[in-house]
What does this fold into?
Amino acid sequence: MRFLFKLVRPTIFLLTLFAFLLLIISIYLVFNDGVAKSNRILGIMHLAGVREELDLLERAKTPKSFMDSEHLIMFLFSNADGNKQLQNSFTMCLTSLFSKASNPQALHFYIAGDVESYYIAKTVIQSIANKFGIHNQILVSYQNISQLEDNVLDIIHTVRQQISSGKEHRFSSPLFYLSIILHKVMPHNISQIILLDVDLVIASDISKLFSLFNNFDQEQAIGIARENQPVYQTTLWEYRKINPKTRVGEPPPKGLTGFNSGVVLFDLQKLRVSSKYNSFLTEERMNALVQKYKFQGHLGDQDFYTLLSFDYEELFYILPCGWNRQLCQWWKHNGLGEKFDLYYSCSGVIHIWHGNCETSLLNYTTF
It folds into this structure.
């Protein structure tokens, strides 16, 4: 027995030592994982909160004359990490914008999307600005949609639920409805902002687009171009069948064609005080409009503006088609070729080319 005990005792000791070492390693791994997670959380908190404070400090140090002339531009930019096509489109858009801008120092960009995409966008913007000799003068701010107040998110979900067909599609994300409540999200000292898609080539000085705010009448609060395809003629087929003499879905210049939200001007101050506009951010009013026009959309915020314009044209300033020259011709080859040119035709100077439907923009670059 003593022999067996002497033989077993070292084995027990080794097993005990091995178990103790495993415990130490486990504690170390858990601790490091916790630190890593904490660092990731702190990084997100920094972007979502501290970044805003830094922007305010930067603005406080900026001469007032510059702040008064700021041109605020928002991009919806998400899921860009690993998406080279999206990154290339954004780079082309920003390069064209800077190449034509007469006062690029006045530009202030807002990026709405996820944290990773914000970092990518900020890097692209700063890199392009440096190429044009504008160093450390461009402000880039971040808007995280997931951190919006609950009452604002509720509005987005309500509108989306009412006007969307219910099927998942490219524009199902709440991000693509953000613009309808910008007047509730942006700081109150900001009165004007322009929303741009990333699949654009800017062929004119962006300050000329901002000057169009001066063309708004007393009630016009949103500047937006007509849809260049008969999209809403087909979407509203049921209403048009019952109302054959309607202007709804008809081509320009007299028809209520519907809108394309690739380029949108927002007078935020007018939207904040417009009881007419804000009344349609409720389930009851929105549902009544949807039922009236038997509407089922799939194009995000532009469906909202289109639907609202059928009853309230006075809220909208119609941008000349040259400020959002859409290149998509999908409907020309899918059943509506006969009437297509009535919607697609656009004469005059082209200031912005829009490569919607993933149309190539390589032939439209001049930089």
In short: The longest helix spans residues 2-60. The mean pLDDT is 85.
